[in-house]
From TrEMBL:
Alphabetized Gene3D superfamilies for the sequence: 3.30.70.270
Matching CDD domains: RNase_HI_RT_Ty1 (cd09272)
Gene (name only): LOC111241577
InterPro entries documented for this protein: DNA/RNA_pol_sf, Rev_trsase/Diguanyl_cyclase, RT_dom, RVT_2
Reverse transcriptase domain span: 315-369
One Pfam family cited in the UniProt record for this chain: RVT_2
Identification of the protein by name: Uncharacterized protein LOC111241577
Record-annotated Reverse transcriptase Ty1/copia-type domain positions: 1-163
């Protein structure tokens, strides 16, 4: 559903005055101004006042805010749940009981002027196809639109988003290209990574050179576009009835950036068999070894896993064990310190959580407790510390 003229519904506390608009002049007092009681589009207070008006209304109707996401509202009715997600004036909602959806639509139409869109098929550029046992999310329309915008529809398809031997640098002697076009391509591609993890690394790599793009950089970006041209129909597939467990993977290169020799971390997180989160990001420091690079990647992966776990609690999905896989055997010793440091930096995770780090032949289970640090099984810790010497 969509709220018509959403920002005009918010009330403002600050004193804001506007000139008399054409057609609404007071001819007896032509030099007077109007004092606003409600927000207008263009005011910096408008988004906040609209959110306050909407959230207060929903709370009065029995909703509660999400613990992590303040734009998520939840209402319980016996065994059923109604979830409402707000994005400015666009609202999506769903429930295990269709009657709760009908009741929500009714109270919203009574309070605000609404446009009902029916079953969710399109949201913020994402196309959603729902069936009884699965949901498929893709951006084929959005992809086709920006391919047409950048005149790439007639190009030959590429098999991969990036060549295996592609090592981009500043290319100081290269030919300059139009910054506006290059940045437009990067911006479109970054939004497209919302449901295309296969282009995440290549897009983020090309984005590093948006300040002074060269012809070599543009060639790499065009290869991504040619790859997308042949794979427009790809998207994310979410089947129903899968087991709910959280699995995370982390990886890192070593000295991959030619400019500063920093490494790039990559992580992905699966709920059951479905991919729900991913990222590719250059690390903030220079690692002295592959072990250190993998350690940094595993640390960020752990932090994201704990955030996802907290988010899932709003959906009554309680995750006890988080499995984090990393490729390097050497990093097992560093894992003993990861959870402690993550807990020190991210104090918002107040409940006990268990992080189980699995390697090929070693595993340990740590109980992270709110303020007391970490409590580990001594036998498992000893096995991990001696693993390298015992092989």
């Amino acid at each position: 559903m969509d709220v018509k003229s959403a920002f005009l519904n918010g009330y403002i506390k600050e004193e804001v005055y506007v000139e008399q608009p054409p057609g609404f002049e007071d001819f007896e007092n032509p030099n007077h101004v109007y004092k606003l009681r409600k927000a207008l589009y263009g005011l910096k207070q408008a988004p906040r006042s609209w959110y306050k008006r909407l959230s207060e209304f929903l709370v009065r109707k029995g909703f509660s805010r999400g613990k992590v996401n303040s734009t998520l509202f939840i209402k319980s009715s016996n065994e059923d749940k109604l979830y409402v997600q707000i994005y400015v004036d666009d609202i999506i909602f769903g429930s295990t009981n269709p009657m709760l959806c009908k009741e929500f639509s009714k109270i919203m139409q009574e309070e605000f002027e609404m446009s009902m869109m029916g079953e969710l098929t399109y949201f913020l550029g994402l196309q959603v196809k729902q069936t009884k046992d699965k949901i498929f999310i893709h951006q084929s329309k959005y992809c086709n639109d920006f391919l047409k915008k950048f005149k790439m529809l007639d190009y030959k398809d590429a098999a991969t988003p990036m060549a295996t031997n592609c090592y981009l640098d500043l290319d100081d002697n290269g030919k300059n290209v139009d910054q506006k076009i290059y940045r437009g391509m990067i911006g479109s591609l970054l939004y497209h990574t919302a449901n295309r993890p296969d282009i995440m690394h290549s897009v983020c790599l090309c984005a590093r050179f948006h300040s002074t793009p060269k012809e070599s950089h543009l060639t790499a970006v065009k290869r991504i576009l040619k790859y997308l041209k042949g794979t427009k129909g790809l998207g994310l597939w979410y089947p129903s009835g899968t087991n709910i467990f959280l699995t995370s993977y982390s990886n890192s290169d070593f000295g991959g950036c030619k400019l500063d020799r920093k490494n790039t971390s990559g992580t992905c997180h699966l709920l059951g068999s479905s991919l729900i989160s991913w990222h590719s990001k250059k690390q903030a420091c220079v690692a002295l070894s592959t072990t250190e690079a993998e350690y940094i990647a595993a640390g960020s992966c752990c932090a994201q896993s704990l955030w996802i776990k907290s988010q899932l609690e709003d959906y009554v999905v309680n995750i006890d064990d988080i499995l984090i896989y990393s490729k390097s055997r050497e990093e097992h010793a560093g894992h003993l310190r990861i959870v402690v440091e993550i807990r020190r930096e991210h104090q918002l995770f107040g409940k006990r959580s268990k992080c189980e780090f699995l390697l090929d032949e070693v595993q340990f289970l740590g109980h992270v407790i709110f303020a007391q640090g970490i409590s580990l099984d001594p036998a498992k810790v000893e096995a991990v510390l001696k693993w390298e010497r015992s092989t």
